[in-house]
Each structure stands twice: as structure tokens, then as C-alpha cells.
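Q: What residues go here?
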């Protein structure tokens, strides 16, 4: 990954447009977190988020899609701080689905995260991974779990290794049903490490960030 300092930049297709009725994804405190993370951390976060992204060989871009556009605004903020061009659009007038594309040269769909084990950038990578592919219950009174799902066993293995290097214990990586999907791999953060995960890793996804905040209230 490159080590450029975060700077402002224009998008390839003009200034980023905020969608009507959408909340701002980066209130002052979150914006400060992005700046404090630094360029390498932001790049690591985006590499983690790319676990749910795709690459267009035809256009040499990487693509993120979400039904909730607020997280895409957050990704755009990260990219702009890194000086990377990006643009967003709604996919189909009848669909509630939004897409962000970027020409950021540091993104790699085959990114190897092993060098991030034991580093602060590893935490940023896990945060991006969790925001893209992680899960937790939406209902505040539901039994808490923190899980990761991914089609790649090696990717899940590296992710668990990063978490373990920060004393966040993980359960066994397993396939719930090979008959349903032989490539569906998942693991959970152990109950005794949930609070440490929510404190250290947390989330920059607007919905998941709120969910974690409600769980941390004493």
C-alpha cells in the first residue's frame, strides 16, 4: 500500500453528491477518527471493505454496492482523504441500490493481509472487513454475537489471525452446511472477547456503529 498523507481531492466526475434525505456519514467525531487513522490505516480499511467489492477489468475500477448509501459516503470520504478518484450512482431507477466506483491504484481484490498481523493497520483492515462482511444482531435485546462470513477460507484464516494477535479470541472457522454452500465459511468472536472487539475494532458503518454503541451502554 502507498503511504501518501491524506489530502482532499475532486472526484473523477465532479464533486460528490449527497443523496436526498441521507444522513451525513461522517459527523465531527468520526471525521476526526478518519484523519487520526492515517493514510496506511485508511488504505487497510478500504482493503478490508473490498472483501464485499468487485473489480472491473474493463474499466480498471473497483466497485462497492450497498442498499444503504451512507456507508458508501464514508468510503468516499476515505478515498477523498487519500486523493483517490471516486463517484457514486444509483443502479437502476427502480432499485434501492447504490454503487461507488473508484480508480484508487492501491486497491487489490487479491490483497494479502498477512503482513498486517499485529499492526494497527490490521485493526483498520478488520474494521473494514466487519463493516462489509461482518454481522451482529440488530435487536438490542437479542443475544449478542459478532460473526464474519466469507467465501474464502484463507481470507477468514488471516482475519482470525489478526484478531488473535490483538488478544481477541475467535471460534473455529467452519462451514454451517456444505450441502447448502460448500464455500460458506464463518467464525464468531468468542463471548469473552466481544467487549474488547467493540472497543478496539468498533465500526465505521453507520448502522453497525449505532448497534455497537447501544451494546456498550452500561
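A:
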Amino acid at each position: 500500500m502507498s503511504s501518501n498523507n491524506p489530502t482532499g481531492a475532486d472526484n473523477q466526475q465532479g464533486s460528490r453528491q449527497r443523496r436526498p434525505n441521507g444522513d451525513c456519514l461522517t459527523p465531527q467525531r468520526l471525521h476526526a477518527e478518519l484523519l487520526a487513522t492515517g493514510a496506511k490505516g485508511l488504505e487497510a480499511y478500504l482493503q478490508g471493505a473490498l472483501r464485499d467489492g468487485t473489480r472491473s477489468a474493463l474499466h480498471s475500477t473497483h466497485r462497492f454496492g450497498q442498499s444503504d448509501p451512507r456507508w458508501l459516503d464514508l468510503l468516499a470520504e476515505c478515498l477523498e482523504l487519500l486523493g483517490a478518484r471516486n463517484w457514486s450512482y444509483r443502479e437502476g431507477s427502480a432499485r434501492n441500490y447504490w454503487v461507488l466506483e473508484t480508480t484508487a491504484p492501491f486497491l487489490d481484490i487479491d490483497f494479502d493481509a498477512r503482513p498486517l498481523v499485529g499492526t494497527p493497520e490490521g485493526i483498520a483492515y478488520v474494521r473494514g472487513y466487519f463493516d462489509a462482511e461482518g454481522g451482529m444482531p440488530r435487536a438490542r435485546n437479542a443475544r449478542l454475537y459478532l460473526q464474519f462470513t466469507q467465501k474464502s477460507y484463507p481470507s477468514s484464516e488471516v482475519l482470525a489471525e489478526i484478531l488473535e494477535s490483538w488478544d481477541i479470541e475467535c471460534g473455529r472457522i467452519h462451514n454451517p452446511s456444505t450441502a447448502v454452500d460448500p464455500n460458506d465459511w464463518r467464525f464468531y468472536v468468542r463471548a469473552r472477547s466481544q467487549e474488547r472487539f467493540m472497543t478496539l475494532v468498533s465500526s465505521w458503518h453507520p448502522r453497525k456503529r449505532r448497534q455497537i454503541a447501544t451494546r456498550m451502554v452500561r
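A: Context that may help when evaluating the design: DSSP finds six helices and seven strands in the chain. The mean pLDDT is 87.
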